[in-house]
Amino acid sequence: MSGQDREAAPKLRISGLVKRFGSGDRAVTALEGVDLEVGENEFVSIVGASGCGKSTLLSLVAGLEEPSAGTIEVSGREVAGPGRDRGVVFQQATLMPWLTVQQNVEFALRGEPGLTRGDRADRAREFLGLVGLEGFERSYPAQLSGGMQQRVALARSLSYGPDMLLMDEPFGALDALTRRTMQELLLEVWEQHRLTVLLVTHDIDEAVVTSDRVVVMSPRPGRVRRIVDVPIPRPRTLASERTPEFQGLSDGILGLIRDAPHAG
Ligand SMILES: Nc1ncnc2c1ncn2[C@@H]1O[C@H](COP(=O)(O)OP(=O)(O)OP(=O)(O)O)[C@@H](O)[C@H]1O
Questions:
Q1: Full-model pTM
Q2: How many CA atoms lie within 13 A of 251 on its CB side?
Q3: Which of 34, 228, 243, 250 shows the greatest Cβ crowding within 10 Å of its Cβ?
Q4: Pocket of ligand 1, candidates 17, 55, 200: which has the most ligand atoms within 8 Å of its Cβ, to mutate?
Q5: Distance 214 CA to ligand 1 centre (A)
Q6: Is 50 in the pocket of ligand 1 (CB under 6 A)?
Q7: Distance between CA 52 and CA 139 in Å, rounded?
Q8: How far apart are CA 34 and CA 149, in angstroms?
Q9: Which of 31, 54, 68, 202 has most ligand 1 atoms within 8 Å of CB, for mutation?
Q10: What Rg, from alpha-carbon coordinates, does the chain have?
Q11: How far is the C-alpha of 238 from the C-alpha of 16, rounded, in Å?
């Protein structure tokens, strides 16, 4: 996507965003003046040192927290709370343990207007298939591995057709091998459903291989330090990481995070 397209119709526009927690001596400024635009169908990752406000930024876009100052617009409308236009995937799958995999996804679809019970069942099966869980519809979350539970969470978030997918360390609790499989799955899913994605991750390689742009934040209070374009051709696979171009981008981002001057 060109810069011009982004200017024409940003899916997400964050302007002058400030977030403070607490008050008086105990006040913590997590974000101070974040400006960011994300284009329709763009995949953008957010990286930065621990505590720089990545999760706070995502929670604000999800509408789970309120800004102290500044604005967040999704599709031109100011975010005033959580909404079905934004699907959220956290580090923990937060599935309902008493429901089967299929029922967990169907449950998320209950608020969808115009869907019959049969439609919900079909939609749930479709998205469980998309994330490779065909045959596990009747399993309970406790019977699944962590990676499979995250697949359910992804299917659940995608099933109601959000415009944006907000992910906060979605693979952070998984072992290295499962994490790689999930990154591959995410690349495949994104190729099929090119929705706008905002991904918070500690894993720089994960950010580079998945994203069109990587936002590097400065240490707390978080600001956008640099935005790095990732011009690696799509469709990408994890093999894309074995190129000198990839390594150069990844090393450059690591350098930006390490060299960032600490505030105060
Ligand atoms: N509810 C809260 N109350 C008080 N302080 C908070 C709250 N949530 C976050 N903070 C503080 O805001 C700052 C940013 O936190 P945040 O979790 O957004 O950072 P992060 O970059 O996601 O960190 P990490 O990479 O370690 O997950 C931290 O100093 C944190 O302690």
A1: 0.93
A2: 6
A3: 34
A4: 55
A5: 20
A6: yes
A7: 38
A8: 33
A9: 54
A10: 19
A11: 35
Q: Which two tokens stand for residue 24?
A: 């008086």
ipTM of the complex: 0.97
- Cβ proximity of 85 and 73 under 8 Å: no
| pLDDT, tens digit only, all 264 positions of the chain | 444 444 567 999 999 999 999 988 889 999 999 999 999 999 999 999 999 999 999 999 999 999 999 999 999 999 999 999 999 999 998 999 999 999 999 999 998 888 999 999 999 999 999 999 999 999 999 999 999 999 999 999 999 889 999 999 999 999 999 999 999 999 999 999 889 999 999 999 999 999 999 999 999 889 999 999 999 999 999 998 999 999 999 999 999 998 866 544
